[in-house]
Write a structure and sequence with these properties.
Belongs to the sigma-70 factor family. ECF subfamily. This protein has helices at residues 5-20, 30-54, 75-80, 83-90, 94-105, 110-117, 121-138, 147-162, 165-171, 196-208; strands spanning 66-67, 172-181, 193-194, 214-221, 224-231, 234-244, 247-254, 266-267. It is of the alpha/beta class. The protein folds into 2 domains: 5-55 and 83-141, no CATH class; 147-254, Roll (Nuclear Transport Factor 2, Chain: A).
Length: 279
């Protein structure tokens, strides 16, 4: 919903305070009540940070989430937290985003969602249809982290480190897009880099700035294969790879130190299940 660990923690803290002030005996469906509270707090937060996002220096990327390997086994969950999908969700208004996430990712009914967002069930159906059509028109091809995708990343990194331009070009899709997020605090491309030749040139230029003290670690972030660039024990660059049919279609590089703050924690995400309830 929020694309930021810190923001999510703030919402959960506020929601917990509201829950702790309620007598549980008076709540017939605790899970439904909590979903409603958290959803509304998230909506309020999204509306409040809109101006902050518009003033962001350079391209904004969601905060990378270090996901447990098993997340990649759930295709719907893995795609829902992928960098590409998070960027698509940013183009929805807050209510559309909440409806899409609750219905298409977590499986809540339109009636349940209506109570959470303060709309009628008919209106929620319309919002869900509009949001789904918007997402489907913009979603990118996606393959979760796996042994096959990691082999592609390994070939890419080896070619980039050794300066093998042709090998590097071969592993990139013709319409590949590279997006960097430095937040105006570190050096990063201010605009997306598109096309195989431009991306290859950009990557080779970036790797020339690394030092002998930099080591590369493989990991899973947002359900995607990723590479961590660690210098002197500090994570200073993280790249998540979007791969389709054996070629890299997207690179998402996060350098903003504020967004790397939570990058060590592993999130064992779970869509979970819930008993139907009647609001």
């Amino acid at each position: 919903m929020l694309g930021s660990t810190a923001d999510a923690e703030d919402v959960l803290q506020e929601s917990y305070l509201r829950w702790s002030a309620v007598d549980p005996a008076t709540v017939e469906h605790p899970r439904a009540y909590l979903v409603r509270v958290v959803t509304r707090q998230a909506l309020n937060h999204l509306r409040a940070v809109k101006a902050r996002r518009e003033e962001y220096i350079g391209t904004w990327l969601p905060e990378p989430i270090r996901t447990a390997p098993e997340v990649s086994e759930d295709a719907i969950l893995a795609e829902s937290v992928s960098m590409a999908m998070m960027l698509v969700l940013e183009t929805l208004n807050p209510t559309e985003r909440a409806v899409f996430v609750l219905h298409d990712v977590f499986g809540y009914t339109h009636g349940e969602i209506a109570a959470s967002v303060g709309k009628t069930e008919v209106t929620v159906r319309q919002i869900a249809h509009r949001a789904r059509r918007h997402v489907q028109a913009r979603r990118r091809r996606f393959e979760p982290d796996s042994g096959a995708t990691r082999e592609v990343v390994q070939r890419f990194l080896h070619a980039a480190a050794s300066g093998e331009v042709q090998t590097l070009m071969d592993v990139l899709a013709p319409d590949v897009v590279q997006i960097s997020d430095g937040g105006g605090k570190v050096v990063a491309a201010r605009r997306p880099v598109t096309g195989r030749a431009h991306v290859a040139r950009f990557v080779l230029g970036v790797l020339r700035t690394t030092t002998a003290a930099t080591r590369i670690e493989y990991a899973t972030y947002n359900g995607m294969p990723a590479a961590r660039f660690v210098t002197d024990g500090e994570l200073d660059w993280l790249v998540a790879f979007e791969i389709h049919d054996g070629r890299i279609t997207g690179l998402y590089g996060v350098r903003n130190p504020d967004k790397l703050h939570h990058a060590e924690k592993v999130f064992p995400l779970d869509r979970g299940g819930h008993e139907p309830w009647k609001p």
